[in-house]
Specification:
The chain is mostly beta strands. Helix content is about 15%, strand content about 50%. The strands form two sheets. It has a 16-stranded antiparallel β-barrel.
C-alpha cells in the first residue's frame, strides 16, 4: 500500500507539473511543423468529439440441441475527443446494461479515461482495461466471437480503475508502459484494497507487432498472481497471424500451471472481405477466475457451446472459422459475418450469423448542419 501511495504521488506531481508547463498559457505561440505560420493553442483547441453508437445483432444456433434464436449483443456508446492540444478523453459505455462489480453509475462502463500527452509521454487515469499482452484480450467486443475465445478471456474481469503511464520513442516503433489499478480480484472499487501492477512493451513494424506484459494481481493482502503474456501479430502481405501465449501462477515456480495459447490466421482481400480461423489450447490447474471447481456436469445440462468450467489438469481445445464482409464501398460502418466454433469439452457446434452496425453520430449531425446551411 505504501509503494502504491508513493507511486501515485510521484505520478500526479509529474503530470501536474508537465500539464502546468504546457497549458498555463493557452494563447502561447506554437510553431507547427507543416506551416510557416504561427498558431495559438486556442486555435488548435477547437476539437469536435467523435461519437458513435455500435451494436451487433444476429442469429445463433447450437448443434446438437434446441438452443437457437435471434438476439443482440448490446448497444455501446463511444465518445472520443480532445480538450486541448495535450488533453484527450475516451468513453465506452454499454447502454441499458448492468454488469460487473462496480455497483455505481459506471457499472456498465468499459472505460472512461482522461489522458495527458506530451513529447512521447502519456499519462491517463480513470476506468480502463487492465494492461495485458494479448491481442485476443485487446480486441474490441464487436470484433470478437465469444465461443471462439479462451476461457480466460470470457471469465477475466479486466475493467478496473487506475492510472497508466507510457513513453513512445521518436520512430513510434516501441511503447513502454506501467500501470497500477484495482485488482481483478477486487469485489468493489474503493473498498477491497487489492491492487494490480503491470509493465508492458508494444512494438510496431511493417511485418510484426508485439504486445508483451508482466502482471501482478493481488488476490489477498500481499499475495499476487504472476502473469506473463506474450502477444504477437505477424503480417505477410494480406495475411495476418495472431499468436498469443500466456502463463500464470501464484508463485513463479508454478507459473506454468495455468497456460493459454491461441493462434488466429486471417486473410483480407478487396478491403471488404476477410476470412479467418482460430485455434486455442488452455490448461488450468487452478480455478482463479471461475466461481466453483468444475464437477463434469454443468456443460452436459446447459445448451451452451462453451463449458462453464475447465477440469483441472485437462487440456481444453477450441477452434473455429468465419468470414466478415463489408457491403458498402469505402465504408466500414456495416459488417456482415458468419462464424462457427466448437471445442473438445462439450463437442457442440455454435453457428452465428449476423451484422455489426456503427451509427456515426458526429457524421450524422455534421450532415444535418450542412443541409440547413
Amino acid at each position: 500500500m505504501k509503494r502504491l501511495f508513493c507511486f501515485l504521488v510521484v505520478a500526479f506531481i509529474a503530470t501536474g507539473s508537465a500539464a502546468y508547463a504546457q497549458e498555463v498559457d493557452s494563447t502561447a505561440v506554437v510553431r507547427t511543423l507543416t506551416s510557416e505560420e504561427d498558431v495559438t493553442n486556442e486555435q488548435i483547441g477547437d476539437w469536435v468529439p467523435s461519437i458513435s453508437l455500435d451494436t451487433r445483432f444476429g442469429y445463433n444456433h447450437v448443434i446438437p440441441g434446441r438452443t437457437a434464436g435471434f438476439g443482440g449483443d448490446g448497444l455501446f456508446l463511444n465518445v472520443d475527443g480532445k480538450i486541448s492540444k495535450h488533453f484527450s478523453y475516451s468513453l465506452c459505455h454499454r447502454l441499458f446494461e448492468s454488469i460487473g462489480e462496480d455497483v455505481s453509475v459506471f457499472d456498465a462502463t468499459d472505460w472512461v479515461t482522461l489522458a495527458f500527452d506530451v513529447k512521447g509521454f502519456s499519462f491517463s487515469a480513470g476506468k480502463d482495461y487492465v494492461m495485458l499482452g494479448s491481442w485476443e484480450y485487446d480486441t474490441y467486443d464487436w470484433d470478437s466471437y465469444f465461443d471462439m475465445n479462451t476461457m480466460f478471456y470470457n471469465t477475466f474481469e479486466g475493467r478496473q480503475w487506475g492510472v497508466t503511464a507510457s513513453w513512445t520513442n521518436k520512430s513510434e516503433s516501441s511503447t513502454f508502459m506501467v500501470q497500477a489499478t484495482n485488482s481483478p480480484f477486487s469485489e468493489s472499487p474503493m473498498e477491497s484494497n487489492l491492487y494490480a501492477y503491470g509493465v508492458g512493451w508494444q512494438g510496431a513494424w511493417d511485418w510484426y507487432e508485439s504486445y508483451w506484459t508482466f502482471n501482478m494481481w493481488e488476490y489477498a493482502p500481499g499475495a499476487f498472481v504472476k502473469n506473463i503474456a506474450l502477444g504477437n501479430m505477424f503480417y505477410i502481405g494480406d495475411v495476418s497471424i495472431m499468436a498469443d501465449f500466456m502463463m500464470r501462477g501464484t508463485k513463479f515456480r508454478s507459473i506454468f500451471d495455468d497456460m493459454s495459447f491461441t493462434v488466429m490466421p486471417a486473410y483480407e482481400f478487396c478491403d471488404r472481405f476477410r476470412v479467418f480461423g482460430k485455434f486455442g489450447w488452455e490448461r488450468l490447474r487452478t480455478n482463479m477466475f471461475g466461481d466453483e471447481p468444475f464437477d463434469g456436469t454443468p456443460f452436459d445440462e446447459s445448451g451452451a457451446v462453451m463449458p462453464d468450467f475447465l477440469i483441472s489438469g485437462d487440456d481444453y481445445l477450441f477452434y473455429g472459422a468465419g468470414f466478415e464482409y463489408y457491403p458498402l464501398k469505402d465504408n466500414k460502418d456495416i459488417r456482415l459475418h458468419a462464424a462457427w466454433a466448437s471445442n473438445n469439452y462439450t463437442k457442440r457446434h455454435g453457428i452465428n450469423i449476423g451484422l455489426t452496425w456503427k451509427f456515426d453520430v458526429t457524421k450524422a449531425i455534421s450532415r444535418l448542419v450542412s443541409k440547413r446551411k
